[in-house]
Amino acid sequence: MITTSSSPAIVVRGLRKTYGGADALRGIDFEIASGETFALLGPNGAGKSTTIEILEGYRDRSGGEVRVLGVDPQHGGTAWKARLGIVLQSGGEAADVTVREQLLHFARFYPRPRDVDEVIAAVGLTAKARTRIRNLSGGQRRRLDVALGVIGRPELLFLDEPTTGFDPEARHQFWDLIRSLKREGTTILLTTHYLDEAAQLSDRVAVIAAGRLVDIGPVDTIGGTSARIPIVRWRDADGTPQQVRTDRPGALVARLTADLGTEPRDLEVIRPSLEDIYLELVRSEESGQAETVPVGSKEEVA
Question: Rounded distance, CA 22 to CA 6, Å?
Fold first, then answer.
């Protein structure tokens, strides 16, 4: 079992990355505790992959401080890299060996590898264990990428869009594998476009947009309490759309019904989902605005 440390597994302070005259990362700060599962969320081009590559030591930063397992990734040696597991967005070339042969080969590089057949089952490739990698589908190769990333029982695991191409059953099998790694004390940094995946697996999430960290915390706190206030929508007597944010939607609906003598037309009560909150955070950052109430809406007072 991996022993967790009181020291953070990852420390990022003022991280910047510039390509030519363009800023890809604009002063990002966060820490990831040892043994924590942490999700990095954001749209394409937000800076997620650049951040991950800097932490893995594959890309140099333009400014700021970074420590991964106590080491500056720009100077991490072989012993440091052996403590990491990495699943990139895309894998390498297809090999002319079977799935099981490839995993057995990689398992020999590590002192305490996971059981090969257990890993194959966890990523949903049992039926393809004796299939040559060049004959796998794209989704099946993605599952093999994940298997190769976890076979060495890493201390810190980077998962960059790990379940792309997985069917629902394979995704749930993969989630079970991640939970088992977490129980062993593995620190996990995950990027994903699946918000349900982040909610299922993560202790905390961070949202990146336009190269900035716009929010960070447990999934149920992202966006703040105001972002979770329900919205009541209806049409008034003239057919004009109306909407109000209120933490007392039942009372508002009762008052509207009493005033009109009947239920308002097209009445609906909407409780913002995690996806709604995430999209609003991203839109606000990308547009340079920070509206708490959408344009054209009313705010319930008292």
Answer: 37
Question: 234 φ, ψ to 5°?
Answer: -165, 175
Average pLDDT over residues 10-15: 98
Q: Of 132, 121, 249, which is closest to residue 173 (Cα–Cα)?
A: 121
Q: Which of 10, 1, 54 is nearest to 33 (CA)?
A: 10
Annotate 142-198 with three-state secondary structure: HHHHHHHHHCCCCCEEEEECCCCCCCHHHHHHHHHHHHHHHHCCCEEEEECCCHHHH
Tell me the sheet residues that pair with 173: none
The secondary element (H helix, E strand) that includes residue 28 is strand 22-32
CB 12 within 8 A of CB 63: no
| Cβ 21 vs Cβ 32: under 8 Å | no
DSSP annotation of 292: S
Enumerate domains of the chain plus CATH numbers.
Answer: 10-221 (3.40.50.300), 225-299 (no CATH)
pLDDT score of 2 more than 80: no
Name the DSSP class of 6: S
Q: Residue 198, Cα to own-chain centre: how many angstroms?
A: 5
- Looking at this protein, which amino acid is placed at residue 1? M
**Separation in Å, CA 224 to CA 27, 88, 253, 292:** 22, 32, 24, 10
| DSSP-derived 3-state class of residue 290 | coil
Assessment of whether the complete model's pTM goes beyond 0.90: no
Average of per-residue pLDDT across 113-131: 92
Q: What is the pLDDT of residues 190-231, one digit of tens each?
A: 998 888 899 999 999 999 999 999 999 998 898 888 888 899
